[in-house]
Specification:
The chain has helices at about 10-35, 35-55, 65-85, 110-130, 155-170, 195-215, 220-235, 240-260, 260-265, 275-305, 320-325; strands at about 1-5, 90, 95-100, 140-145, 145-150, 175-180, 190, 270-275. By secondary structure, the chain is mainly alpha-helical. The chain has one domain. The strands form four sheets. Strands 1-8 form a two-stranded antiparallel sheet. Helix 3 runs antiparallel to helix 4 (about 110-130), helix 4 (about 110-130) runs antiparallel to helix 5 (about 155-170) and helix 7 (about 220-235) packs antiparallel against helix 8. The protein is globular and about 65 Å long.
Amino acid sequence: MYVFSEGMSTILGLLVWLAVFGALFGFNELGRRFKWVGFCMFVVLPAFLTVLWLTVLKDTAYMDWFHLAKVYSSDAGCIGFWLIRHLAGKRKDGTIWALADNKIALCFPPFILAINILEAVSRDFQVGSLYANAQGIATHLVENNQVQDLLGGPWNIMNGIAGLLNIVTITGWFGITVRRQTKSDGSKDMLWPDMLWFWIIPYDLWNFAYTYNCIPNHSYYAGLALLIAPTVCAFTVGKGAWLQHRAQTLAIWCMFAQTFPQFLDSSVFTVKSTNNPTVLFIVSFLALASNVAIFAYMIYKIAKTKRNPYKGELFVDNLGYKAVKALAE
């Protein structure tokens, strides 16, 4: 699937991957556990870096529409989630209000998630139409300060459809809540009880296929490490808050990649895809099959329970749902 750069052994490649995974997991922990660290990480730091990207680093930072859209949309998600978690106060009559109790505010997480998926879906369709090659030869592309070897094909269409299904199966928006603070965890994570493993795994498969299809020279890190870090967190120390972890790790990674693109494109740590059409097809087929499965399961649950997944929660009888709900305030 991948080819390490000349001079990097398999062992070194694995160690660097583990370092990237560990850094993403660690910075996410800092951002979620400490309120003002999160504020500085996702408000102050991006503002400072934007000035650098547009001035000192304008000749090296990625300037294509997709990378810029991804860094700012993921950071917008982090800011919005931070506000949902922490913005609260007391009314004149002494009652407490919290943004997390506002139904309009709770539409923001699924909206920003859908926007991020649509960005990738549009890029998959674009690569499939512009870089298809009957001989299976990838196009070497150098533009907007990035280097990619793109091979379009039916896998892009398959994965684009998988992404659209992934959006349709986002359920239980209004069940989003905040984690109860305890001595061991004062994070106030943004919990989404209806977003369970059987949706997260198809998302991961779809997004990995997207990175393998559309940013193959970055997929080793931006696909594998960047997807596994928030998923591990969501099933361990940060249960039920996968979307928050995903947004934070994605924003952290995008800021790093914008600032140090050489790490991905022209260093000893660069890892490229083999651009093998068979592998591309298999990866996208798995993504599509898993998202068809979760779509079918959602339809089955709707038919059985008569619940509306967009007005309420669909999986309230699931043990995983109940475990996450028990963590809420």
